[in-house]
Amino acid sequence: MAKKTGFTLIEVIMVMAVAAILFVAVAPSMLKGAGAVSALSFAKKLRSDMRYAQTLAMTRYKLNTPPSVNPEFRYRIRFNAADANCPYASQYTIVNDADGNGLWGENPNAAGAVESARDPSTGDDYFCVRLDSGNFSGFTISANFGGAEPGVLEFDTYGRPYNSDKTALASSVTVTITRGVESASILVTPNTGRVYTP
Prior knowledge:
Blueprint: H1 9-32, H2 39-58, E1 75-79, E2 91-96, E3 128-130, E4 140-142, E5 152-155, E6 161-162, E7 173-179, E8 182-188, E9 195-196
Antiparallel strand pairs: 1-2, 1-5, 2-3, 4-7, 5-6, 7-8, 8-9
C-alpha cells in the first residue's frame, strides 16, 4: 500500500492558531509604525528632560549672568504654556529668566541672549518638544504643580522644585503622560527634586 502524505486537519488548525496568536501579539506594534514611541519610552525622555532642567539650574555658575543681575538663577520646564518661540498647541519647553525681568524664555532678551536651554538632541538654541507631530504625536502631559501657572515646574540653584509662584512643593507631584489607552507616570518629590518613574 502506498504511503499517504499530507497534513491532518488537527495540524492545519494548530498552525493557524499559532499564526493567529503571533499576529495578535505583533500587530499593535506594527500598526503604530516604525517611529512611534511607547508611553513608557516617552516618560523616560520627559524624565531625562526634567532632570536636564534641574541640572542647568544647579550649574548656573557656568553661565555668563552675574549674580548681581540674577542672584536666583532658575530654570523652568513648562507644559503646554503659551510660548511665541514654541507656538504649538501641545508642547513643553525648558526656559530661564537670565536677565531677571520676570519674562521667561525671551528670544532674545535685552542683552541679546536666548533664555532657554539648548536642546542636546537637535542643537537648537531654544528647547521645544512638540507633541502634535513626529514620534511624540498624540501624547498629552498633565501636571498640576500649583501656582498661577499649574503646568510649570521650576528648579532653584540647589535643584529644589518650586511652582510658578516660587513656592516650594509641599508634597510629591505626579506628571501623567497619556496617548490613547497607554499611560505612564513621573513623580517629582519635594525638597530634593528627585524625578523618577514609579
